[in-house]
Design brief:
Blueprint: E1 3-9, H1 13-24, E2 29-33, H2 40-45, H3 47-65, H4 82-106, E3 110-113, E4 115-118, E5 123-127, E6 134-143, E7 147-149, E8 162-163, H5 165-168, E9 177-181, H6 185-196, E10 200-204, H7 216-228, E11 232-234, E12 238-245, E13 248-254, E14 260-265, E15 267-270, E16 274-276, H8 283-286, E17 309-311, H9 322-336, E18 350-352, E19 357-362, H10 365-371, E20 375-381, H11 386-391, E21 397-403, E22 409-416, H12 419-431, H13 436-440, H14 451-462
Parallel strand pairs: 1-2, 1-6, 2-3, 6-17, 8-15, 9-10, 9-15, 10-11
Antiparallel strand pairs: 4-5, 5-6, 7-16, 12-13, 13-14, 18-19, 19-22, 20-21, 21-22
Helix pairs in contact: 1-9, 3-4, 3-6
Length: 468
């Protein structure tokens, strides 16, 4: 029987980063993946393919709507080749997953293909799709099995017309009318993809606003922008039935006034979040506790109730974000090696990759109010930037929340072009406990979108933004 210092079940961002870090620290490492390619949901059917589709659809929309404004005239009709677009997406996925395989080889990590399930606290059975099972032994085991799309109990996902995000990345046609259940990150990103490609898009959301976990100002601004793009919203609506008849989908929801909303379309994307995935793990055999939400229970060191078994990423509590899983994977590897790493969960950024992009880190204004924290606000509109006007990306703003007495930055919330990259400036500043004044006194290159961060900091410091 092959023995390892560490075995990781699952090769998503958390799992493969944990494996690399363990190998770097001198441990004999194995990683187990049930699918034929490494990278988990993120690389195969999540973050990477959805961004490829977002970029391709953005180029298409620019070509048909905005090129002429820039003096670019294309003779003849601009045509969409959805099959080629999907093919490009797949090539990006293939390149990325092959890159992970290269990293496994480079770091001498042994890869096992098959479903990993506990035999006991130190032994894992690996059952491949074909052939005989293998058993390995590991001193330490990291559970990194991730999550799967959630649904509602009365919805039958046929994965043809009533679909999840996985199927939405493989459609053979542009929907005439896509009904999206859920106004969170995944639904809005994929909704914008198909809206750009010509679909009518309707979003049905149970809460009273979209992206409900983020700052209310971001929710309001993003919905305003998406409405301009002709996306329809039905907030505070409780879906009660989804039925298919032929190629027609009918969604019925209770509206907030006691009536009923009926929507008819040809595709329904169910995007109501994700659930921890532990199917086939056989955690009971190792004595590992799972909570009532299906998550693996862990302590502050991501250690389960069994001391040599850890769990990271979507399968444990906290935000279901690839970069959160990566940080946890590296942390557990270092803990096993006897080091003392830490993660500040308050400073893990959240991003929505619509256009304009939405990004946030730290406390929201609602959270500060609820906690009774005295704070001040500085906000600056993107449209006041020369760089934003030059690129015609004028929607959005940067908002900084700072402690009223100490001026320490408590939260940064932004919507606009390149905010997914821009939020890292805020994370860096907050890691060093910067004040709004600290940011306001740093030189920012001109013209850039980043100037909006400086201006918002100036506004928070003494209400002295320069360009409004």
């Amino acid at each position: 029987m092959t023995q390892f210092d560490v075995a990781i079940i699952g090769s998503g961002p958390g799992g493969y980063v944990a494996a690399i870090r363990c190998a770097q620290l001198g441990m004999k490492t194995a990683i187990i993946e049930k699918y034929s390619t490494l990278g988990g949901t993120c690389l195969n059917v999540g973050c990477i393919p959805s961004k490829a589709m977002l970029d391709s659809s953005h180029h298409y929309e620019d070509a048909i709507k905005h090129f002429e404004d820039h003096g670019i005239e294309i003779p003849g009709e601009i045509k969409l080749n959805l099959e080629k677009m999907i093919g490009r997406k797949q090539s990006v996925v293939d390149q990325t997953t092959k890159g992970i395989q290269f990293l496994m080889d480079k770091n001498k990590i042994e890869v096992f293909q098959g479903v990993g399930s506990f035999k006991d606290a130190t032994h894992i059975d690996i059952k491949p799709a074909k052939g005989k099972s293998t058993t390995i032994e590991a001193k330490n085991i990291i559970i990194a099995t991730g999550s799967k799309p959630a649904s509602l109990p009365f919805i039958e996902l046929d994965k043809d017309r009533i679909i999840t995000s996985t199927e939405a990345l493989e459609l053979k046609e542009v929907p005439k009318h896509m009904i999206i259940i859920g106004g969170g990150v995944i639904g809005l990103e994929l909704g914008q993809v198909y809206k750009r490609l010509g679909a009518d898009v309707s979003v049905v959301e149970f809460m009273d606003r979209i992206i409900p976990g983020m700052d209310g100002a971001l929710s309001k601004e993003l919905m305003k922008v998406l409405k301009k793009q002709k996306v329809k919203f039905h907030l505070s609506h409780k879906v009660k039935s989804v039925e298919r008849k032929g190629k027609e989908i009918k969604v019925i929801a209770d509206d907030p006034k006691g009536g009923e909303l009926t929507l008819e379309g040809d595709y329904c994307l169910v995007s109501v979040g994700r659930r921890p995935f532990t199917d086939g793990l056989n955690a009971d055999a190792a004595g590992v506790k799972v909570d009532d939400k299906g998550r693996i229970e862990v302590n502050e060191h991501l250690q389960t109730n069994i001391s040599n078994i850890y769990a990271i990423g979507d399968v444990v509590r906290g935000a279901m974000l690839a970069h959160k899983a990566e940080e946890e994977g590296a942390m557990v590897a270092e803990l096993i090696a006897g080091q003392k790493p830490h993660i500040d969960y308050n400073l893990i950024p959240n991003v929505v990759y619509t256009w304009p992009e939405v990004a946030s880190v730290g406390k929201t204004e609602e959270q500060l109010k609820e906690a009774g924290v005295a704070y001040k606000t500085g906000q600056f509109p993107m449209r006041a930037l020369g760089r934003a006007r030059a690129s015609s990306d004028i929607d959005g703003f940067v908002k900084i929340l700072a402690d009223k007495s100490t001026d320490e930055v408590l939260g940064v919330h932004m919507i606009g072009a390149r905010c997914a990259d821009l939020i890292t400036e805020a994370v860096t500043a907050m890691e060093f406990r910067a004040s709004a004044e600290d940011i306001s006194r740093m030189s920012h290159a001109h013209p850039t979108y980043a100037e909006a961060v400086k201006e918002a900091a100036l506004a928070a410091t003494a209400d002295r933004a320069l360009h409004v």
